[in-house]
Amino acid sequence: DQDGMLVLSTGADFVLLLLLLVAVWRRPRTQRDGAHQSSHTATTWLLTAYFVVLFLQRIAGLNILFWFTFAAFFLPLAIVLTQRGVNFVLRPGSDDAGRPTIPAVTIAVIDRGVRMILILAAAYFLARVWGLNMQSMRDSDTTTNLILRGLINVMVIALAADFGWSIIKALIERKLGIETPHAVIDDEEVPTLDPQQARLRTLLPIIQNILLAVIVVMAVLMMLASMGIEIGPLIAGAGVVGVAVGFGAQTIVKDVISGVFFLLDDAFRVGEYITSGRYVGTVESFSLRSVKLRHHRGPLFTIPFGELGAVQNQSRDWVTDKFNITVGYNTDIDFARKLIKRIGLELAEDPEFKHWVLSPIKMQGVQEFGEYGIVLRVKVTTRPGGAFSMKRKFYVRLRQVFKEQGIELPFPTVHVEGLQNSHGAENAPVEAKPELKMAVAQSHTNRRRKKASTTE
User: Fold this and answer.
1) What confidence score (pLDDT) does residue 123 get?
2) Which CATH number fits domain 319-454: 3.20.20.70, 3.30.70.100, 1.10.10.10, 3.40.50.1820?
């Protein structure tokens, strides 16, 4: 009879409740720290309260409230599990290197498509449980039906906007996820982007943010229009508010507009090394208002575009580095020129530097007659980033070759006359102390660096 079926159904629901509570209280813990312990306990009690409330609604006969409460928990859970299942099946892991990859756009379409199906199916089921008649709701213009139609339109617009944004995001991430070629400098791998890739990596994040803002604004306006709200006055009011905000936040507006012109002028790209005023570093990322520079010593600068000013880009096309070498006054200059040229050609053919060299190391001529030697001017033209390690190797090879050929690299010496030595002899040369030698040598070095910097 009916009472027996009710008792049997209640007993089955109670047994199911006990099984769910046992599963909740005995679920494994992944970590043992205090914060996770508190979170685990709170989640356990919340799930217990949820299932108890669900059971009470069931036995009380509150079917509509029961199914809405049921969907409020299990619909998001189904969406999360579906997303993880799609990623697990369609996205190869690290152990599946030989497995063919599925385009990210296809994965996004499947993921968002399944999500839309789940949400629409749940909405249709809840509408049927509530007893809504779709035909009458469409034909009737009562207040309740207008509100329900507006809510359905809002849901459809939100799902369509999410679907479109997911496809756009997948396309952009596919472009950004292209593997970057690397070159070896000083035993370290350094990314070497071609101009088109660098340009894409610079502009795509900005375009992504702009498209997201456009989609959100359009979706909100369409939602308001679908609910019967006039959006014309809202747009006019937003324009007035925008003008007021523009006057009140002129610095922000200046930063944004300056950033737009920097990007249009292609002044710098992600991965390039730039100098602007007192800021120096590698461009890491952009926003609509600022740029992030990573200094070679580690600090990260966040600089508004309006404060950049003139930008010196040291990563475009080619770099010419000029430096000095000092040889003794008795050195054959032509012979030294040939040795330097030979070393430059050797380094230009070295596989480690061949990719970087545009013009090999060569001697330009005599820079000046120094205080203790002849200063020779040497220059090299390379791709950006290639001169530093090659100069280090050049100095090592130059020292070896000069030593083999009997060419001495001069260094400052100090002789002090007019002092009395330990035997009482006056006006005899006395060797200076090591501390004095080091001080004089440092003074000569600083003076030489200053002269070299002024001739750059």
Assistant:
1) 86
2) 3.30.70.100
